[in-house]
Design goal:
By secondary structure, this protein is α+β, with helices and mostly antiparallel strands. The chain is about 40% helix and about 20% strand. The strands form 4 sheets. Strands 11, 13, 14, 16, 17 and 19 form a 6-stranded mixed sheet that branches. Strands 2-9-7-4-5 form a 5-stranded mixed sheet, with no helix packed on it. Helix 11 (about 415-440) packs antiparallel against helix 14 (about 525-550) and helix 13 runs antiparallel to helix 14.
Length: about 550
């Protein structure tokens, strides 16, 4: 580098630049590079000749770091240059912030390098105490280098560095407490999640570390995990501890939920520990929190249970088997029995006893339960008999509800269009509304919830309107007459319904975003309650707007 700098700064003639350009064009090489190589080689040869008559001693390296409880530190002295002779050098320790006798043992002496020896080591004892103090250091120096025989023109000299610094790190700190990682993964069937808490930068004294759990997408209180608020105790010289959190195995097919564990401010609980520390060091000696004081715990599904479910699904098992029946006897027995509507089991895994509301709903719906028990079981004719009879009975029930609602509307003075979108729709779609509520609780997505309601409307339209119009059209065509239907406000009502349905589905899509609740339905109360009120307002608004159009307060199309 020095030769290059000299060449760059030296004055150069036009011939130099011309020669440089010509050699580059003709492939003759770079004059500058060739000159630098020659000068560097000459410098190396001169330096080697110079060093062949000198022997140097120096510390390698020049600084050392050692824990207070290490017992001793080894300092290395290196030799370079001519190593064919015997060389002596004196060394001694010197106080800096560390003091001989209380922090380390004073040392001094003479090192002798025999021919062909490159390294010698100095061992210095470190004194370990049990009082917190700041990190301290001392020095080791070299001097009085000399040759045993000063013949042959060889010289001895001290190289750089001639002093070494030894830093003593205090290990009497109460410690810095933190988690090992920022997140961990557990399987829901593990029963307990063991979370490691680390203690670094000292382990002196008995320390209490408070901790608590906070909810994420996983719910506490025994639903997904057990809430935990407690204290983790670290004994003297204990470097790690474990927080145990109970995990609830609800046997979900797919599960990816999270909760958090947070550490609180640790505190010393060893009597007299703080009094042994100087006043200005007490704050430094107290236990502290590290950078990772909050850990995210991911709960995943049990792979063994998931594989069993996958095999059963592949074999054809599923929801159809859960609702199938093999005989009329079984259907009538289920229709007459009162069973608990709660999905959770009681103590010992047994089904819970029916509640008062279960009995009330059973007796109110007993007639319909017995009536539909006459539907053929699903095992007959591969389920086709059940399907055809069920559709027929639903049609009869829809006609019955429609007639009752029409008579009610006529009695109170409501138009048929208003009665159809309010009482008839409520009577035929209310069971599907409860079915959608169950689907929303059990499924990860809102597909089944939306499908139940829209499927019910499709069947109602097909049976209540489409089938009737089809039969009437066939009848009039057979008699040579024309079947005409007055659409009334149907087009306006369907348009408003589609607009509101699009708004509802768009809202569910927006709620998928984590900051908006992280789920299509439900979620935290601050999202769940406003969205529920908005959905109800869409239904009320649809009825109000369609009714106003029916009574000519709004112009339709």
């Amino acid at each position: 580098m020095a030769n290059l700098e000299i060449l760059n700064r030296a004055p150069k003639s036009r011939a130099f630049y011309r020669i440089q350009a010509t050699r580059k064009l003709t492939g003759g090489g770079n004059v500058t590079r060739k000159y630098i190589k020659e000068m560097d080689a000459a410098s190396i040869d001169e330096h080697a000749t110079e060093k062949s008559n000198v022997t140097q001693l120096y510390f390698a390296p020049g600084s050392y770091t050692v824990l207070e409880n290490a017992g001793a530190v080894t300092v290395t002295v290196a030799r370079s240059g001519n190593i064919s002779t015997t060389v002596h050098v004196d060394y001694w320790t010197e106080d800096a912030t560390a003091t001989a006798g209380s922090d380390y043992e004073k040392a001094s002496g003479t090192l002798t390098f025999y021919p062909n020896e490159h390294y010698k080591q100095i061992s210095i004892n470190i004194i370990d105490d049990e009082v917190f103090e700041e990190d301290e250091h001392f020095l080791v120096r070299l001097d009085n280098i000399r040759l045993e025989h000063s013949d042959g023109g060889i010289k001895a000299e001290l190289g750089d560095p001639t002093e070494a610094m030894v830093m003593i790190l205090d290990d009497d700190h109460a410690g810095v407490f933190h988690f090992e990682t920022e997140s961990i993964e557990v399987v829901e069937s593990c029963i307990d999640a063991k979370i490691k808490v680390m203690r670094s930068s000292g382990a002196r004294g008995r320390v209490i570390v408070p901790y608590k759990t906070t909810e994420g997408t996983a719910r506490g209180g025994g639903k997904d995990f057990d809430n935990a608020v407690g204290e983790l105790i670290f004994e003297n010289n204990q470097y790690e501890g474990f927080i145990v959190i109970g995990i609830v195995d609800d046997e979900d097919y797919q599960k990816d939920e999270t909760f958090f564990v947070e550490l609180g401010q640790p505190r010393l609980c060893t009597p007299g520990t703080e009094e042994a520390i100087e006043e200005h060091l007490r704050t430094l000696a107290l236990p502290k929190l590290g950078p990772m004081t909050r850990i995210e715990v991911h709960i995943h599904e049990n792979n063994q249970m998931k594989s069993v479910v996958d095999k059963l699904l592949h074999a054809g098992a599923g929801g159809a088997n859960a609702v199938s029946s093999s005989s009329w006897r079984e259907q009538f027995r289920e229709a007459l029995q009162v069973q608990s509507g709660d999905d959770d089991d009681g103590e010992g895994g047994e089904a819970k006893s029916p509640s008062c509301m279960d009995y009330i709903m059973h007796f109110l719906s007993l007639f319909w339960k017995v009536l539909f028990a006459f539907v053929p079981p699903t095992d007959i004719m591969g389920g086709w008999a059940c399907f055809v009879v069920s559709i027929g009975m639903i049609g009869v029930l829809t006609a019955f509800v429609g007639d009752v609602a029409s008579h009610f509307g006529c009695t109170v003075g409501l138009k048929d269009t208003v009665t159809a979108i309010s009482f008839v729709a409520m009577g035929t779609s209310l069971p599907d509304t409860f079915a959608s509520m169950v689907a929303a609780k059990q499924d990860a997505y809102a597909d089944s919830s939306v499908g139940n309601v829209t499927g019910s409307n499709a069947v109602n339209v097909f049976l209540g309107i489409g089938m009737a119009w089809c039969i009437a059209a066939i009848y009039h065509a057979a008699n040579g007459t024309q079947f005409v239907v007055n659409p009334g406000s149907l087009a306006f009502s369907v348009t408003v319904f589609c607009c509101f349905a699009f708004a509802a589905i768009s809202l569910m899509m927006v709620k998928r975003i984590q900051c908006c609740g992280g789920g299509e339905l439900g979620g935290p109360p601050r999202f769940r309650l406003p969205v529920a009120m908005l959905f109800i307002s869409l239904w009320v608004g649809y009825i109000v707007i369609s009714s106003l159009e029916s009574y000519c307060y709004i112009k339709g199309f």
